[in-house]
Write a structure and sequence with these properties.
homodimer; about 325 residues; alpha+beta; BirA Bifunctional Protein, domain 2; 7-stranded mixed beta sheet; 3-stranded antiparallel beta sheet; 11 helices; about 25% strand
Chain lengths: ~325, ~325
C-alpha cells in the first residue's frame, strides 16, 4: 500500500468521531434531540440513520443549487449515482483494505424452495440474516467512486475532464452525533487530467468552498486532515496523507465550537484512481482530485449557526440558498 | 400468514419479469442499448444497476413536481427516506418471509485487528465478503415502510393522516430490462386511518394517476395485479391478493407494446401495517393505503413514448413536467 490509498471524496472523516462525555454535557446528543423535537430529523431507532423532513431537505436543495451554480463555470458532465455499487468497486478503490469497518456489502436469499423452511424457522428466532448470501453488490463509500470505472481504459484529453456528481454514501459508524450519519449525500466536483491541473482544481475548490460557506454565514476554516485508515498500519497511511497535505477539510462548528466538524473535503488523489482504473493521459497515468460538499453536515452547520427557525435566518443566507 | 401480507407500495412487481427472447428480438436489451448510447443511463457492469445522467434526472424531477402538485391538495406531511433501514423493519413488514429473494441486508467488517490479516488474504482471492458480519441494517423494500414505525403505538385521528414520501427501494432482481432496476425511487402518497377512507384514497389515486399519465401522453390502463410472493405458498397469497383486488397497477408500454410495464401502483394494505406497528384508530386497528409512482419507470415510459430527444416532446408534456 502507498500513501495514496486514501478516501477519495471523503466526507468528513478526518475529524475523530466525537465521544460525547458528561464533561461537556453531551452536546451531540443534545443537538440531535433538538433536531428530533423540531421534526427536522426523525429517529429510526438506529444511531446515525434518520428520516428527513421536507424542511431539512429544503436546506439540502439550497446548498445543492449553490454548489451547482459555482460548478457551472467548469461545464462539467453531471451524473447522479445510486447508493448501490458493484462490490468489486470496493476492492478496486482499496476500501476493503483501508476502511473495512466502514464498508457495506449486500446479502440476499438465494437458496430457493429448498432452504425456505430453514429461513422461516430462522425468521422466528431473528437469525434469518445468517441464511442469506453475498449478492456481489455493496454500498458506495465515496460519491465519486462509481465515476472511475466509466472512464476505465479511456484516453483523457490534455485539458482533462470535469464532472459534477450527486452521490450517496454509506459508512458503518453508528454515532449519537447527528453530523455523523451512516447514509449521507456528497455533492462533488471532480477533475481527471494532468497532475498540476488536478492540484489546481483541489486548491481552487478549497477557496470556492470557503467562500460559499462564508456567504452562508458559517465560521469555517481549512485544515489538513486524514482519512480514518484501519488499524495499526492505517496510522502510517494517515500520517503520510497529512504530511503530503493531500486532504483539506473545511470545518465549522455544529455541536461543539471547540471541536468543529468537517463539512466539506477537498482531496488530491494523485494517481490512485488513475492507476486503479487505467486512466491514461498520453503516455502517463492521469491524476484526479475532487471536492465533496457534505450536504447533511452543511445543513446541520446552518441549523446550528442560524437556529432551527428558518424565518429568522439572515436574508443574505436565504438568498444564497435561493429561498 | 394471511392474504394481507403483501408488498405495500410496490413498484412494478405484478408484471412478470420479461424474459427477452430471440423471438421478439430482445426489445428489452435493445431499448437499454439505446439509453446507454444516448448517455441517459450509464452501465455499471451489473444488470439493473445504472448511473443516471442529468437529462434522465430532469425527467424524474418533472414527474416528482407533477405528483407533489397533485398531492398538495391533501396537505400531507412530507418525508424523504434514505435507502438504508434497520433490518428489523424487513421482519416486521413480513418481507423476509414473503420476498426473501428480493431483500438486501448489510454486512461490514467487525473483527478488529485480530481478523485483519485474514481479511487481507481473502481480499487477494476475492473472498473477503465472507469475513464480514451482519450490521443490523438492510435496504428499504418499499418506500412507505419506514413511515409506519414512526407512528407506532400512536392514536390516529378520526380523519386519518396523510403523508407524501420520497423514497428509495432495493430489489435484488438483476434484469436486462431497463425498467427492472435493482435500485429505484418511489414517490408515494400514503393514507393511514379508517378502512373506508383508506380504500377511497387508493381509488382516488388510481384516477389521479391515470389522469397524470395521460396528460404526460402515455397510453396507460389500470389492471389488477399481485406482488411476487416467494415460492409455492406465495402463489396462494398472490391469488388471494388478486381476488381481493388489493393491488392496482397502472401499466404503460416501455420496451414492448404487448407486455406493458407497471409504472405506478396503488395498494390497499387493509390492517397489515396497522397490526404490525400498533396503529390505533379509537378501539380499532387503523388501515392504510398508498400510491407509489415509479419514477424511473415513468421516465422510461416517457422516453419510449416521446423519443430520446427532449426537444421533440409535445409542448403539453413539457409543460406538465414544468420544463
Amino acid at each position: 500500500m502507498t500513501t495514496l490509498e486514501h478516501a477519495g471524496a471523503a466526507p468528513p472523516t478526518g475529524v475523530p468521531a466525537p465521544a460525547p462525555t458528561a464533561e461537556h454535557g453531551d452536546p451531540y446528543r443534545a443537538f440531535r434531540d433538538e433536531l428530533f423535537a423540531a421534526g427536522l430529523l426523525v429517529p429510526t431507532g438506529v444511531d446515525g440513520l434518520y428520516l428527513r423532513s421536507e424542511a431539512f431537505e429544503s436546506i439540502v436543495r439550497g446548498i445543492d443549487a449553490a454548489v451547482s451554480k459555482m460548478a457551472a463555470v467548469e461545464a462539467p458532465t453531471v451524473y447522479h449515482f445510486p447508493l448501490v455499487v458493484p462490490a468489486g468497486l470496493l476492492e478496486r478503490t482499496d476500501y476493503v483494505r483501508s476502511f473495512p469497518d466502514l464498508i457495506g456489502v449486500l446479502d440476499s436469499y438465494a437458496k430457493g424452495e429448498a432452504g425456505y423452511g430453514d429461513l422461516l424457522a430462522a425468521a422466528e428466532e431473528g437469525s434469518w440474516p445468517q441464511h442469506l448470501e453475498h449478492t456481489g453488490l455493496g454500498l458506495c463509500s465515496a460519491a465519486c467512486h462509481p465515476l472511475y470505472p466509466t472512464l476505465a481504459g479511456s484516453e483523457i484529453p490534455p485539458a482533462g475532464r470535469r464532472f459534477e456528481i450527486f452521490g450517496q454514501v454509506f459508512r458503518h459508524e453508528p454515532s449519537v452525533d447527528p453530523a455523523r450519519q451512516q447514509v449521507f449525500r456528497q455533492h462533488e466536483v471532480v477533475f481527471v487530467g494532468a497532475p498540476a491541473d488536478a492540484a489546481a482544481h483541489r486548491d481552487a475548490w478549497v477557496e470556492r468552498g470557503l467562500s460559499l460557506h462564508r456567504r452562508l454565514g458559517l465560521v469555517v476554516e481549512a485544515v489538513v486532515a486524514n482519512d480514518p485508515f484501519f488499524g495499526r498500519g492505517g496510522r502510517i497511511l494517515a500520517a503520510n496523507q497529512r504530511a503530503e497535505a493531500l486532504k483539506i477539510e473545511l470545518v465549522a462548528p455544529i455541536c461543539s465550537a471547540d471541536q468543529p466538524t468537517a463539512i466539506t473535503s477537498a482531496n488530491c488523489h494523485l494517481d490512485h484512481f488513475g492507476t486503479a482504473f487505467g486512466l491514461r493521459l498520453g503516455d502517463e497515468v492521469a491524476h484526479s482530485a475532487c471536492v465533496g460538499f457534505g450536504l447533511e453536515r452543511i445543513a446541520l452547520a446552518l441549523l446550528a449557526a442560524h437556529g432551527l427557525e428558518f424565518s429568522s435566518w439572515p436574508a443574505s443566507v436565504r438568498q444564497e440558498l435561493g429561498w
